[in-house]
């Protein structure tokens, strides 16, 4: 059976959920489809307990509470979970047995089906204390933690974890962070190692006990290694996106959109999946994109 609707939203992360809220408020018929078994996208899967402080109109909120707030504004009977969209053709989306025809299609598939990029050292797969995402972080209280990465996730986690442990190391391969350095400006318990890359780990009984890092130096200079004892290693090298190629024009891993977030015809992309000059992969810009597209489809 083919479902017919006005708006089919593919992806129920913060962007898709926000778009569904707009449809619900304006009584526009919609479907919200997600491949996963729960809504919330990266927030639910990667950082449900983290505080978010940069959503317009909300001073501070725990991420999972933000998702609950968004779910409250959606008719749950319109949500289709475990439904992975594989093909989009004209105005029809195909997800296994599920087919839907919509006047407008909103692609909000974020980073898609992603798997974390590894640290890249030998024996990494044998260590259960090398983590690639955190749902809760209270178990890191007073633990020795090495955090790898230079983007916002690494900086956000460095800030949060250094509040509950005084043995936190942040290691990044460049001299400058890709994320906002203001985040860690006032962190007292954080040792920062720049520019260093992971070199090796020592491990015992399926757990890394230390990580050795190597300074990035000009060619010819003698090697400089440092060993850091660890209880946990947190890797924030981002995700390798997969399975979200619907055949639209891409910019790297992302879908190219025009100034109205249009991909083509009545297909739009909002949130992390879309790409334009200076695109920031945060929640605030995705809200602005949804508002813009919603206004357009209503006019
Ligand atoms: C650790 C961390 C901390 C962050 N902290 C902040 C912060 O403090 N403030 C902030 O503004 N931003 C933060 N971000 C960024 C923010 O989480 C993202 O910008 C946001 O999640 C993007 O939302 P989205 O809905 O576009 O995509 P996603 O959250 O990636 O959701 C996409 C959804 O689409 C679904 N999907 C994918 N492919 C398909 C398919 N083929 N069919 C059906 N469904 C599919 C997925 O299952 C997923 O549910 C953080 C990110 C990380 C990793």
Description:
The chain has helices at 14-25, 41-46, 63-72, 152-161, 283-298, and strands at 2-10, 30-33, 51-52, 61-62, 79-80, 87-89, 92-95, 98-107, 113-116, 130-131, 145-148, 168-171, 190-193, 196-204, 207-215, 225-229, 232-235, 239-242, 250-251, 254-256, 262-264, 267-269, 274-275. It folds into two domains: 2-114 and 239-298, FAD/NAD(P)-binding domain (3-Layer(bba) Sandwich); 118-235, 3-Layer(bba) Sandwich (FAD/NAD(P)-binding domain), CATH 3.50.50.60. The model has no long low-confidence stretch (mean pLDDT 94). The strands form six sheets. Strands 1, 2, 5, 6, 7, 8, 21 and 22 form an eight-stranded mixed β-sheet that branches. It has a five-stranded parallel β-sheet with strand order 10-17-11-12-13, covered by helices on one side. The chain has 299 residues and is of the alpha/beta class. 18% of the residues lie in helices and 33% in strands. Flavin-adenine dinucleotide is lined by residues 10-16, 33-36, 41-43, 46-47, 52, 54, 84-85, 108-113, 152-153, 156, 244, 271-272, 281-284, 286.
